[in-house]
Design goal:
The chain has helices at 2-26, 28-33; strands spanning 74-77, 98-99, 105-123, 133-142, 149-159, 166-186, 195-196, 198-202. The strands form two sheets. Strands 1, 3, 4, 5, 6 and 8 form a six-stranded antiparallel sheet that branches. The protein has a two-stranded antiparallel sheet with strand order 2-7. The chain has a domain at 74-202: Sandwich (Jelly Rolls), CATH 2.60.120. The relative contact order is 0.21. It is of the alpha+beta class and 203 residues long. The model has no long low-confidence stretch (mean pLDDT 90). Strand 4 (133-142) and strand 5 form a beta hairpin. The chain binds calcium ion (CA). Calcium ion (CA) binds at residues 88, 91, 93, 96-97, 197-198.
Amino acid sequence: MNRKINIALIVVIVLSLTAGIAAFFLKPAAWADAGVTTVTAPEQVKAQRPPCFPDPEANYIKLPETENLALGKKISSGEYTDVYAESNVNDGKTDTYWESKGFPAEMTIDLGGEHEISTVGVRLNPSAVWEARTQEIAVQVSTDGEQFSEIVAATRYNFDPNTGNRIRIDFDKTGARFVRAVFTMNSSARTGGAQAAEIEVYE
Ligand SMILES: [Ca+2]
């Protein structure tokens, strides 16, 4: 007798669960009648900033949105500090960086062919732990990799996390295959060399 009651209870429970699941999946229209609103989730691949929050990058120095010609290209430089090898300077990541051993420090990028270029950008990690600093940089260009001409004389640029820890060097459009950034000073007390997370070149 008890066994029959147990079976009957199990049947009732199973039927109730089945009905509940069916109602959940098959009757959204009934929910609407009950005051429930269904909202389709937007397509989203990263965290979105609600409009009421200020844009943390609003004051960042703008760099061109065109192709960065330096990305992944052949580069050459002198000695570097510790593990901060030159290959970090054009890997497309701001959390990897090149640090030279001493000054002057030259970083030469072979664009692989001649381009009409007009902007060089230098980035440090935008994180606030990379406090503001000044670096002195000149820009030289070449078409053959041997004869270089200076198109921007040594100038002191302020890197500041409030403006994205990046600087932009603009000059008259010039034909170049090789671009060389010459660093001659870094005000950061943490290093005796040049630092760059990325050096970028744009037409
Ligand atoms: Ca990098």
